[in-house]
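From the shared-data thread, chain only:
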Amino acid sequence: MKHLTLILTAALAIALASCSRGPITANLMCYNVHNCVGLDDSLSCERIARIINDAEVEAVALQELDSMTTRYPGHDMLSEVAALTDMYPTYAASIDYRGGKYGIGILTKEKPLSHRRVPLPCRSEPRSLLIVELKDYYYCCTHLSLHEEDRVKSISIIVNELSQLDKPAIIAGDFNALPNSMPMQFLARQFHIFPKSGVPFTFPANEPEREIDYIALYTGGGATANVLRHEVLTAPVESDHAPIVARVEITE
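Structure, as tokens:
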């Protein structure tokens, strides 16, 4: 009986500790880096890395990344930026391209516990969802199709995939969709799309006039987010998109 009491006491203590854990703070970035080729046609991983380092983020979702293609011989864009930012790279190749790969990636200060690529539909070229597991949450990256029907189908797949995860899940990416479009309205049913302070436009980087890059929390599992900061950074030359940065408190 005494042994059973000790077990129950320990279980209660663990449960109370879990319930009393405070919010998870996450510092995040999303950036379509256009293969680190800027609007001046210069390829510079150093410029992209400088933006990431200056933002002091812990996880970055990146889109449009060549890996060892003949288009940019000898360059693995994600690995090069990872080395310059002292972050762990996780790559998801969406297509084979010119002797190498082309896809999306995530950089994290923390070594990922696991990762998985999920294929997404696109009539012009295959797309991907990359899910990276960290200690307290999942960070996900995507780059959706230029076709609205494909984007709607992709979001349905994304919702299904994230609903199966056992921690809060945040998705970031170039959705190629305006805020009031059908895909983003569909996403908003089960995601908290983080509102941006100031001008929300992210494309084109030199004269932004469209908002197509987003960071959002999946709320279907009960998680909530307090957005402390979410803004578009000024970066008019380094890529054709501007980066976005968010600081959020996530409560399960």
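The chain has a mean pLDDT of 92.
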